[in-house]
Amino acid sequence: MAVDRRKLIVEAATKSFSLFGFKATTMEQVAKIANVGKGTIYTFFKTKEELFDEIINRLIKEMKQAAEEVINPSFSFYENVHRALYRILEFRLEHQLTIKLFQEEKEMGTPAVMEVMVKLEQAILNYIKDKIVVAIDKGEIQPCDPEITSFVMLKLYIALIFDWEKNHEPLEKEEIAELLEKYIFEGLSK
Amino acid sequence: MAVDRRKLIVEAATKSFSLFGFKATTMEQVAKIANVGKGTIYTFFKTKEELFDEIINRLIKEMKQAAEEVINPSFSFYENVHRALYRILEFRLEHQLTIKLFQEEKEMGTPAVMEVMVKLEQAILNYIKDKIVVAIDKGEIQPCDPEITSFVMLKLYIALIFDWEKNHEPLEKEEIAELLEKYIFEGLSK
DNA sequence: AACATGACCAATTGAACAAAACGGTCAAAC
DNA sequence: GTTTGACCGTTTTGTTCAATTGGTCATGTT
């Protein structure tokens, strides 16, 4: 085995999806970039979607890894949630692939992309949910529904990072951390 | 003046926008429903967009009125915010026009509709913001940025009412009130 | 024998053109 | 003065058809 053809294909597809999106990437182009015949792709992946799915699963793994890297057990729960969520959402702004897919989802509504973005969001939600379950067990936060809480946290973050920018000056990372603390962890009541 | 032609036109347009949306409503159709000539519409409104705008301004007024009706000074601030926001968002589910426009915004992205929906959201935000400013003055809640707080509240409500339903059983009105209280007014910290 | 390949296929897409429908105007009718 | 619908330039929609696509498989290569 001179070269790992499977790896070549996945790398080529990642490159092309990142550059042109899912729909505008043709299997012939992937084959050409990977320097393999088109038929070879189909010995490893049944369909274009399956190839796409493999790449997304890798992306999810990478995001989890990136999140784990900024988490520090000596920090408080909310500090860690903030750091993890912020890091995960930074991905969207840093990685060509997520930028392109986010754009394709909004502008073209490509079904395969829509599906995959749901999967990605679900992965993030599950990740946060697990953290919340642990925090409740440890008594770091009040008991609450982890499903709803992770949902609320993610929506709040997306709103503060992406939606807020549409009409206002972007918020600093520290401001967002303060807001999370203020709203979710302290509350506004007197 | 046997009949108020302007009123007839606005009523006809409201009916048609509610039934078919903005794009699929033609000025000829509005004229036919209103029993006036097409040219008559243009003696009152310069463009189709201007007619649309008038209708939206009426809608905003109606929403404010509906919100005011459920507010009760003897209730707490957060209870009133909940009632007002819930009532406003109920509009989307009750009124044909808002349902149709919400759908047209998402599915077709008609520019004039997008614009108007931003205006509608802005009106809601300003309404909540005013309530927050008063509440801070009265010392009912901690000092906070009213702009961000109203933004967070609305996004949280939209997430809990509309987004949550996409993957879960809808939340009851009381559950949403509890969640708002838990997250925004108490916090999760121990 | 095992694997890799690109010519090939049915299905989908999109460019190009024609026809219909549209928002808006205005001279005529009332 | 007010109302109107035939009319206009533009945009949207429907249609056609050639090019492209995802996927297969008989053939070639090692």
TrEMBL record, chains A, B:
Keywords linked to the UniProt accession: DNA-binding
Keyword Disulfide bond annotated: no
DNA-binding region, residue range(s): 26-45
Keyword Ion transport: no
HTH tetR-type domain location: 3-63
UniProt xrefs under SUPFAM superfamilies: Homeodomain-like (SSF46689), Tetracyclin repressor-like, C-terminal domain (SSF48498)
InterPro entries in the record: DNA-bd_HTH_TetR-type_CS (IPR023772), Homeodomain-like_sf (IPR009057), HTH-type_Tx_Regulator (IPR050624), HTH_TetR (IPR001647), KstR2_TetR_C (IPR041490), Tet_transcr_reg_TetR-rel_C_sf (IPR036271)
PANTHER family, per the entry: ACREF/ENVCD OPERON REPRESSOR-RELATED, ACREF_ENVCD OPERON REPRESSOR-RELATED
UniProt name for this protein: AcrR family transcriptional regulator
The organism of origin for this protein: Anoxybacillus andreesenii
